[in-house]
């Protein structure tokens, strides 16, 4: 005979309502109570029926996550943070890859929308108008993107980039280069603005070397463009590109950091494992994943209250109803110096 929620409640010696909340709204019960309920369910072999729950509550207990490229090592830590937070909330994640195609994001949102309670969009490159269209379909939260009407979390270039530039300046560098990301990147212009401001403050020349794909090949092309300049140090859009740039420079016989100092962005795991270690701006990727799910969940809780109390639906665009609708969280970055930066060598 199949076990029911009533059996779980009896086993845990709590009310059926509390047992139900432990599965449907775990944020409304204490951790000890939820653990007691889960233990009781495991002992008697009870498993909640998500399909039935969705019919009753109007919620699936699933959040979607769309990333531009699962091969990019920036995203695993974001996904781990999102997964950990979803698990704490009693939810699951459905993850998909947009394949670095901005025009592929909206079709994915349309596909996922009927199956999920909300979607985390990572590094979305949709135009603002398309993003608003997507937000009409399902609640959204953004990672690495700022929108005037949607909640999101991003890595604040301050204090990481200013610290990196001042570190290079102290080492004698007076001409900095920047190997940027794709021209459609929403975060890249912000970094360029910070670089320009800091360089002006300390009297350092800087050269915008160009925009490149956020890939290994993009890093290699960035290295080739870098060699056409007179810079002695370079900031790179991400660590993935920076590592490829260093490899390409070595292929041309250019010593890092003896001839050119290199600074990345992200602090992916590989950055500390190469020789020389990659100096980089550390991004709190795990915390960004946690925050993105929290923003979705906070809006979902508020929407549930409106649905119960009769104050409207869950639309995102132009709505002030959700408590997280306009929340934009900037998490601080920090500079991590390693072996890829050094003092300028003065040649006679």
TrEMBL record:
Gene3D superfamilies named in the record: 3.40.50.2300, lambda repressor-like DNA-binding domains
Biased composition, class Gly residues, residue ranges: 312-321
Gene Ontology molecular function, alphabetical: DNA-binding transcription factor activity; transcription cis-regulatory region binding
Sequence segments annotated as region (Disordered): 304-327
Record-annotated membrane-spanning stretches: none
InterPro entries xrefs: HTH_LacI, LacI/GalR-like_sensor, Lambda_DNA-bd_dom_sf, Peripla_BP_I
Protein name: LacI family transcriptional regulator
Residue intervals of the HTH lacI-type domain: 3-57
Record carries keyword Transcription regulation: yes
